[in-house]
Every structure is written in structure tokens, then in C-alpha cells.
Amino acid sequence: MSEWVVRVEEDVKLLRDASSLSTDLVELWQKRCIYKVPTSMKDLNQKAYKPQLVSFGPYHHGEEHLRPMEEHKHRALVHFLKRSNKPLMSYYESLLEVVQDFKDSYDSLDPEWQSDNDRFLQLMILDGCFMLEVLRYTTDSFDDYSRNDPIFSYHGKEAEEHVNRLIRRFWNDQPERIGKCLHVLDIFRKGLLYVEKYRHTCTTRRNYTNILVMGSVMELNEAGIRFKLSRTTSLKDISFRDGVLSLPLIVVDDSTESTLLNLIAFERLHIGAGTEVTNYVFFMGCILKSARDVSLLESQHIIILNAIGSDKAIVEFFMSLSKEITLDPEDELNWVHEQIIMYRSKPFNRLRTHIVHAYHVSTQWSPWAYWSIIAAILLFTLSMLQTLYTIYPYYHPNK
């Protein structure tokens, strides 16, 4: 125990002396961009964080169910080298100069990879060239591959549809000006969020979100709010204006959950990444509470279902994703949230909500529904009288 006390005291002394404080650890943290997902984050869906068909990088390399893909990686490397007309050694020597930067990009890299540059670079080259070949073959021809190649052929495109869907999700329609990216996941994330000219709204805000709930799609619809497809597919392209909530298109399929969970994990673990995807998922979790909510957004072509099941499954999907996450108070979506709450709180919109709700909850048009509407109108009238009574002395101070 005494040795531990001495060591800690020495660290405290070093920390107090700014001139002696090493920046090595800070620089190492800044280089990290590929993370092992903590166990606490995996509880929601452990399968979502594990590759199902092919591994990229050291974390899952060698796992039994991923080994069949290794032979395809080797074939892709050979074809890549043939087309490039450069020897493998030239790539190896170039990457050897920055091998430590590659290693520093990984969080908690196992010692077996840290200590063996040759093995690590072999993995980087093999996986990297395979990824490039897969990306190339989604848009290019397969003239240099056999017609019956199980992966790199038209037959392979159909046979490995789950691979192609993932590649299309990560690569197709990515804007050209998304800037410097850390890795493929970061490319995909920035592509999801990219807006050519993003509109910044007023920053004068009233903090409603801590005490009031925005409401589900149907509740917002009862208050007179209409839903419209946004002009772009960016997850940031959400706006509320003149009673219209604009939302971007989302296609939900069997890979959406894994994709969003990994993006949320990246935003949580990588300092400075932002929280835009997390905020979007939280927002959708707030407004999707029933199958009717999903159905209404489907009718506006905002949600498209692709082999995921029922509308109820979509509700459960977003509710599970939005567990244990919150909306960043500094994000633009928080302002949209507050605008909607302010819109719903207006007396006329509250009256409309009450009347529409009273009509829908009643299985028959009973006397109770009449009394409910009469009560709502009376409440609205009293609210208006109270407002007039409050502002009248301001405009007529001498009366």
C-alpha cells in the first residue's frame, strides 16, 4: 500500500507542475477513432455490434463464423495488385512508415497486434484491399474476375445481397464535400447528416423540454400539425414551420438497427464526433408511440418499411434504440422540440386537440362526447377572456 501511496503522490506532484505534465497520453486519446464497445452499451443488442459475415481490422479477426471470407480477401488482394501494376512490397513499405498511427487509432489494441508490425500490416493490407474491391464492384464491371466468382460477379451480387445492401448503405449517394473522414463508419455518418446549406434557427429559447412532452405523431396531428417529407435525406433536415413538421426519409430494414446502434456508440465514445444521429433517434422515439403513428408517417412517405415486419415492430424498434439516451440541449432538434410544444400550448390548438381526441376515443358518438366538446369550448372561452382581461389595462391604462 505504501508504494501505491508514493506513486500516486508523485503523479499529483507532476500534475501540479504544468511544465512537467506529459502530453503523450492526451495525444494518444486524440488519435483514437476505432473503439471496442463497452459491455454496458451492448446490453441492448449484442448481435448488433458483431460482424455477421466479414471482419475488418483486428477486433474480430479470426472468429470462427467469419473465417470463410478470408479466402475471398486473398483473391481480392491478388486482383487489386494485378490491376495496380505495383508490387506488394511497395504498399507494405509505405504503410510501415505510418504503422504506429494505424495502431494508435484503435482503442485497447491487443498486445499481439501491438508487438507484431508484420502481422498487423498484413491484416491492414488484406482487409483494406478487400474493402476497396467491394466498393469498386458496386459501380464498376467485373472483367478481371471469373463470371462465376462467388463474390465479385453479377452472380455474387445476387447471392450476397446482404453484403451489397450494407455496402450501398455505407457508400452510395455519399456527397462529395463531406470533408475529411476517419473511417468508413464516419463517411457514412457524415453522409447521413450532410446538408448543402443547413438552416440555423433562432437561438432564443424557452426550456420547455425538461417539463413537457412533445407528443406522439397522432397527438401532434390532433393539434393540427401536418407532416411533410423533407427536401433532403439528411437526418439534420428536420424543421417545424407554420404547423408543418418536415422529416427526412428513412428506409427501415434488417440492418438499420445495427447501423444506428453503431453510429450512436461512435458518437458516445469519440470525443468531438457530435450527437446528431443520437438526437435523431431520440426524436423519433418521442413521436412514435403506436402503430398508428408509423402508419401516418408511411402515408407521407417518410418511413419506408423493407422486410422488418409490422408498424408495431417499428415502434418497438425506435423505443428500444432511444433507451438511455437524451436530446442534446444545444442541438437544433431541441429547438424544433420546443417550437412544437409552444405550438401545442396555444389555446386554439389545445381546443382542437381536445375536440379531435374526444371524437376518436369515443367508440360511438355518445352524449359524453358532446359534453366533452362543450367543456372544451367553455375552457377555451374562459382562457380567451382571461387573456383579454390581462392585456386590457396595458392598452387602456386610464379606464
From TrEMBL:
Ranges annotated as spanning the membrane: 368-392
Organism: Actinidia rufa
Record's keyword terms, sorted: Membrane, Transmembrane, Transmembrane helix
The keyword Membrane is assigned to this record: yes
Pfam families membership: DUF247
Entry keyword annotation includes Transmembrane helix: yes
InterPro entries referenced in this protein's UniProt entry, alphabetically: DUF247_pln (IPR004158)
Annotated protein name in UniProt: Transmembrane protein
